[in-house]
Amino acid sequence: ITTDDLPCVVEPGENKGIVLKYLPLFVGNYTQEKIELRSVTTGVFPYSINLTATPGPPLPTVSATCVIGFRKSVRIQLENMSKLLATFLPISSHPDFQVKTPIVAEPGKLATVEVIYEPSSFNNSSFNLIIDSAEAGLFEIPLIGTCLKPSPVGPLLVEPNSSVKITLTNVFDTANTFCWFTDHPAFVVDTFTATVQPKQVLEIIVKMKLTEELSEIQPEWQNLPITGKLVVCIQDPALNHIKWSFYIKSFINKK
């Protein structure tokens, strides 16, 4: 409880009101709270106040959109309105959302909550994230995740005789065998399949191999780009319709 009206001067015969600000951090009933107003002239004025704190409404909805196989990070800010160093902990969970911890905020400062959305199916996800702090109270944030089908990525630039790393996550609850290929002989991979455990990351290294055939191209053509595509899919027939395409570009001579 705070007020901006004290100290104040009350003239003889004057009635003066004082506005109290009630800013509860926790839900509950607080009966017979005592407040005393003191004056060296008129003495002590005791008051008893009954206070009630009800749950607040959820914070504004936070939305995240992500292609399956990838992840999206969103940031939420919570205010520590207490006078103590506050630690915030998530007390609700959803398999498609992960909250990075620890979350700490100084008194009167904002805490940044980072939420990672990693969809595990093409179904959209909705979830009420509840974050609790013994110092700053309870916060409820509605989250909505929208999962998109894969769309082409790139072009990814790779230097001659160099490589580029492409990553995907097995977002499903079971191990899956991924397979991939490139459609241009200049872009090569050392392996073509890998079994990836649930929630683990697949890394594919694509190399640009400057072959003798490419080196013999006429000089006037050597500044034109070489383009290709890496296609990744899952061998499981139930998931084989999901395909990721990564366009790749390189040059024989890089100016």
TrEMBL record:
InterPro entries: Hydin-like (IPR033305)
Cellular component, GO annotation: axoneme
Top-level taxon of the source organism: Eukaryota
Gene Ontology annotations of biological process type: axonemal central apparatus assembly; cilium movement
PANTHER family per record: DLEC1 DELETED IN LUNG AND ESOPHAGEAL CANCER 1 (PTHR23053), HYDROCEPHALUS-INDUCING PROTEIN HOMOLOG (PTHR23053:SF0)
Name of this chain's protein: Uncharacterized protein
Organism: Clastoptera arizonana (Arizona spittle bug)
